Amino acid sequence: MYFSSDWKFLTICLGFNSANSLFFCPWCTINKKEISDIKKEWLISKQIDNINQYNGHHSTPLFNMISLENWIPDELHIMLRITDRLWSLLLHEIEETGYFNDVAREIIVKEMNRIKVNFHFWQEKECQSWSFTSLMGQDKLKVLQFFDLNKVLPPTRANVIRNLWNGFFDLYTAIRDPNTDPKMFKRDAKMWLKIFLTPSTGIPNSDNFVQGLYRPNDVTPYMHVLVFHIHEFIEKHKKWGLKSFSCAPVENKNHQQVTQFFRKTLRDGGNGINRKSAILQILEFENRKLYYICNDSHNIPNTIKLQI
Question: Which domain of life is it from (predicted)?
Fold first, then answer.
């Protein structure tokens, strides 16, 4: 038996801490203070039979018949969440330099339009902070591959970050490739994290100062799994490939339902007893689809009235 989902649902079903806890990894005994130490080796070391003996496991797993090595992190969410972190770090860097103004935001939006990604900024009235469009998976991949960082950063800095982004895209591609060699992946993933944590050298504001990349605090749980555990899952499940456990179809279904039902949660106007919740509408809609599929029903085109 196998279980695959995003991090939050996986830890809930496993009876484990949230990702921002001191003990955050469902598979090994690492703690947050060690998350950026690439000299250590972290392997899947816990056993489902005595899972509650480990720090952070506060409840009995819902599916304790599934071996822990078969609780597989979703490759789609690895891409989504790490891309989110890389993008937020880019925006933070622009803000830190003091150039996150209307001109910079317009440049970013135009560059997004160039790579065919619908993207906008808007300002929250309550806190005066800027929010931006939440992108779907394919759009995030476009940004990761094709966004021209030279539009918003000096050339040298843009090249450094572009190499980091390209490295992560290569790792994500390797996760989905059934022919990926686990040992090569482990080596490349560790090298990528080492580049991510490149420290600054020299004295600030001097000619010999070379700006590094990111801090240990910027490393996320998904990055830890990418570097230390994905190679194990590739090795253990090479018969199927990690792509076979992807939650992409579920996420696509969720997106369709959100688009169809949550943009207007009271589709009948909410009058009297006819008012229905969005969740109820989703269940009824799915039941109708199943009924028509099981009974081999055919679609009858709607009558079109033409006024001459």
Answer: Eukaryota
Whole-angstrom CA distances from 241 to 94, 178, 190, 217, 261 are 38, 5, 21, 31, 34
The answer on 286 and 168 residing in a single domain is no
- 79 shares its domain with 68: no
Task: Calculate the alpha carbon distances from 242 to 48, 81, 97, 177 in Å.
Answer: 21, 17, 40, 8
223: how many CB neighbours lie within 10 A of its CB?
22
**Alpha carbons 141 and 261: distance in angstroms, whole number:** 26
> Is 306 a member of any domain?
no
Phi (first) and psi of residue 209, to 5 degrees: -80, 130
CA dist 178 and 180 (Å) reads 6
259 and 283 belong to one structural domain: yes
Q: 180 with 42, same domain?
A: no
8 A C-beta contact, residue 209 and residue 203: yes
Ranking 32-41, 111-120, 155-164, 261-270 by mean pLDDT, the lowest is 261-270
For residue 2, count CB atoms less than 10 angstroms from its CB and return exposed for 0-12, middle for 13-18, buried for 19 or more: middle
DSSP string, 117-181: ----EEE-TTT--EEEPPPPHHHHHHHHHH--GGGTS-HHHHHHHHHHHHHHHHHHHHHH-TT--
